[in-house]
Specification:
This protein has about 100 residues and is of the alpha+beta class. It has a domain of about 55 residues: N-terminal domain of TfIIb (Single Sheet), CATH 2.20.25. About 25% of the residues lie in helices and about 20% in strands. The chain is built from 3 helices and 3 strands; from the N terminus they run αβββαα. Strands 1-2-3 form a 3-stranded antiparallel sheet, covered by helices on one side. The longest helix has 13 residues. The protein is elongated. About 10% of the residues are buried. The structure holds zinc ion (ZN).
């Protein structure tokens, strides 16, 4: 599906600011697209009211999403830290999973 098709599809969930009908049958014209934003001209299929909308385009996320408390994606520095830590670790897997496993 192209961008215009996607926007028209999503527009069904919104209402016209003029007539308050759903925008299921609207016309969408792409005015500009830059980086993660695009500007579109939307014409209501019901009353013909035209307005401009600026949309933020988000990259597709993994269906499972990020873990609840995840703030940032894992960086290569994080991976290096894990690698360093595992290199020095000589306990069991269970000990590894404990936040502060005591080693005797
Ligand atoms: Zn309308």
């Amino acid at each position: 599906m192209n961008l215009i098709g996607l926007i028209r599809e999503r527009a069904r969930n919104y209402r016209c600011v003029n007539c308050a009908q759903t925008l299921g049958d609207c016309e969408v014209r792409l005015l500009s697209q830059k980086d993660a934003h695009c500007t579109v001209e939307v014409t209501c299929g019901n009353c013909g009211f035209t307005f401009i909308a600026v949309l933020l385009l988000k990259p597709k996320t993994h269906p499972d999403g990020l873990p609840k408390h995840a703030q940032e994606p894992i960086s290569s520095d994080d991976l290096l830290d894990v690698h360093e830590r595992l290199k020095e670790f000589d306990g069991s897997f269970t000990e590894l999973l404990q936040p502060r496993a005591r080693r005797n």
